[in-house]
Design brief:
- With 419 residues, the protein is α+β, with helices and mostly antiparallel strands.
- The chain has 15 helices and 16 strands.
- The chain folds into 2 domains: 244 residues, 2-Layer Sandwich (BirA Bifunctional Protein, domain 2), CATH 3.30.930.10; 91 residues, Rossmann fold (3-Layer(aba) Sandwich), CATH 3.40.50.800.
- A hairpin with a 5-residue loop joins strand 15 and strand 16.
- The structure holds zinc ion (2 copies).
């Protein structure tokens, strides 16, 4: 029998998992330092949530969802992103009844059916942050700062932060009209996808990566020129807070988010050397999302960061993560009776907080020492019947090979000194 894993998913073996855990620990510490708390929502949700929360016109909903029916014929979907579920949980659990803001983060697997290619998986992982119930520009700046600081903290070089304001429904209406008037006569020069976008959502034409479309839209009207006074003021405040924290950003008037509930701040973090998938993080304000999902009007701002891309960028730049764990010790027992007593000793040392391994193959002393070497043990404690009789163990320093006896009652204290 040789069953293989399905296309588009990965195994994370222990060595790789250690890197993921390191990054996740850094994420948790950073979120905690700003008062964000972890939320865990289900891996699947009602399909309707994503149709409304992610947008029925998006590629994600049209082409990329893993949708299935349960035994009662209800349509369910493996979550393709995290924000819609966080907003749903916020409304469903009536968190709005408590004092805002609600500062939440999540880390977990997401699912999208995309053409398998380098750096794209059907199951991938995102870290996301959402601040709900606040329209304060400081919340936008805090979110951007947090995403930026994570990259810095992990030692990524050459990151760039692109920032824009996409305005509110009021100023965007004017912009839409100007953009449509500009694009309509140029429609024949656009790709087939963009001609459809022009009808449904002209903003997304600016997003197209195809050369002819980029050339056609090069002289298109720019959104920041159409901001209303309120949006203009909000954007200026966000920028001033970013300047106050020395967070370097570049203004990018092309950075748009295609859906109606996105407003004001939009940002992206780009890592060099990841090819077409160079954005590791994207986010912004989405004040209209909660109402779209049937909840009470609630402003919100957040981002999602692709962990495969983040770890890919770390590997690309040869950033070595400090992965060393606590020291390991091996208890090598010789003989059946000694083994029974060593088991008890191991349990006591583990309870005292030490990492203690025992050979699980009933091997000779020589093999147990080899085992200790392979496991990177700092010391091996040899428990022969003779030693245990005298109430000692022989402690062998695995680097030098030196050996000395330590009385059993002193072992836990001695371990603290041995480190
Ligand atoms: Zn506005
Ligand atoms: Zn196009």
């Amino acid at each position: 029998m040789s069953i293989q894993r399905p296309q588009g998913v990965q195994d994370f073996l222990p060595r790789q998992t250690a890197e993921w855990q390191y990054v996740e620990n850094e994420i948790r510490a950073l979120c905690q330092s700003c008062g964000y708390e972890e939320i865990r929502t289900p891996v699947f949700e009602a399909t309707e949530l994503f149709r409304r929360g992610v947008g029925a016109t998006t590629d994600i909903v049209n082409k990329e969802m893993f949708t299935f029916e349960d035994k009662n014929g209800r349509s369910l979907t493996l979550r393709p992103e995290g924000t819609a579920a966080v907003a749903r949980a916020y409304a469903e659990n009536k968190l709005y009844g408590q004092t805002p803001p609600w500062k939440l983060y999540y880390i977990g697997p997401m699912f999208r059916y995309e053409k398998p290619q380098a750096g794209r998986f059907h199951q991938f992982h995102q870290f996301g942050v959402e601040a709900l119930g606040t329209g304060d520009p400081l919340a936008d700046a805090e979110i951007v700062w947090l995403a930026w600081t994570l990259g810095e903290k992990l030692g990524l070089r050459g990151l760039s932060l692109r920032l824009n304001s996409v305005g509110c429904p009021v100023c965007r209406r004017n912009y839409h009209a100007a953009l449509t008037a500009f694009l309509q006569p140029r429609a024949p020069e656009l790709c087939a996808d963009c001609r459809v976008r022009l009808e449904k959502n002209p903003l997304r034409v600016l997003d197209c990566k195809k050369e002819p479309c980029q050339a056609t839209t090069a002289a298109a009207p720019e959104l920041p020129d159409y901001l209303c006074p309120d949006c203009r003021e909000h954007f200026a405040a966000v920028r001033s807070y970013l300047a106050a924290t020395d967070t370097p950003y570049q203004l990018d008037s092309r950075l748009v988010r295609g859906l109606d509930y996105y407003c004001k701040t939009a940002f992206e973090i780009i890592a060099p050397g990841l090819g077409a998938q160079n954005a590791i993080c994207g986010g912004g304000r989405y004040d209209g999302l909660m109402e779209e999902l049937g909840g009470p009007p609630t402003p919100g701002v957040g981002f999602a960061l692709g962990l495969e891309r983040l770890l890919g960028a770390l590997a690309e730049q040869n950033v070595s993560l400090p992965l060393s764990g606590p020291p390991r010790y091996v208890l090598a027992a010789l003989g059946a009776e000694a083994r029974r007593r060593a088991v008890r000793l191991a349990a006591e040392l583990r309870a005292a907080g030490f990492t203690v391994l025992m050979d699980l193959q009933g091997q000779s002393l020589k093999s147990q020492l080899k085992f200790a070497d392979r496991k990177g043990a700092a010391f091996t404690f040899i428990c022969g019947e003779n030693e245990l009789e005298r109430g000692v163990v022989a402690a062998r320093d695995m680097r030098t090979g030196e050996q000395r006896e330590i009385p059993l009652p002193e072992l836990a204290r001695a371990l603290k000194d041995l480190r």
